[in-house]
């Protein structure tokens, strides 16, 4: 969306603020310590449109969130104005969304940029007791909710949001390291499911992961659609399971797969695993769920040879 279009859109759809808090969202972001995000808003000349009468909702990554980005991503934000504007506007809703008891799990809300953000609410258990809830936006934790401004509310996040590349299937097709998986899910009839509404979670083995398999097993999977489908559906779960949700499952860390099997998930701040196998790339946001990249194939019990096709 072009900058001028955004300005006109915000000004024309806004209602008038009442001036109760004497601060608008861009300045509030700086006030709560999200100074890197606030500076990017100024660099992108979005301060005025995002100070227009709301109501709006802003998701403001804290400074540590930007520290965690790769040098390449930071370079992109610092040198590509179009990408910067798109990313910033993906953090803003043209409505007021409060984080409260009525917030629904797996709720999709459209952003000013266009694609929706996904809100997840995970129950947190400790020693089998429900001790609270954690809310995430595209897998990023809401650290501070419902900070008030004259033109809306601001929620502080522990991560930067990036617009999704599309559905799970779109993401697989775009990744040059996932060609075997992409062909496999297509061959066994899973592409439409991964291209649907979801929500789904996929633990996506890379090409290198498949090539680490014993040669006879790899050949069997490539020639036996029954065996291949059994393995691939073992990598897919219903629901959006970002790694932050793994924390919440400490009382029962099992997820059921489409193959009706179970996988065990665990996570820390720096390490997440499924069946004690490290997740190589965590929490890739897509429009119908989440992708976790795996450098090892998860293996359920494989059908016997007489089922070969």
Describe this structure in words.
By secondary structure, the chain is an alpha+beta fold. The protein folds into two domains: 25-157, FAS1 domain (Roll), CATH 2.30.180; 168-294, Roll (FAS1 domain). It is 32% helix and 28% strand. It has 13 helices and 14 strands. It has helices at 3-13, 25-31, 35-43, 63-67, 71-79, 81-89, 168-174, 179-187, 191-194, 207-211, 215-223, 225-233, 243-248; strands at residues 56-61, 92-93, 107-110, 116-126, 129-137, 140-149, 152-157, 200-205, 236-238, 254-256, 262-267, 272-274, 277-286, 289-294. The strands form two sheets. A seven-stranded mixed β-sheet has the order 2-1-7-6-5-4-3. Strands 9-8-14-13-12-11-10 form a seven-stranded mixed β-sheet. A hairpin with a 2-residue loop joins strand 6 and strand 7. The chain is elongated, with a radius of gyration of 21 Å. Residues 1-19 form the signal peptide. One of its GO terms (cellular component) is extracellular space. This is Periostin.
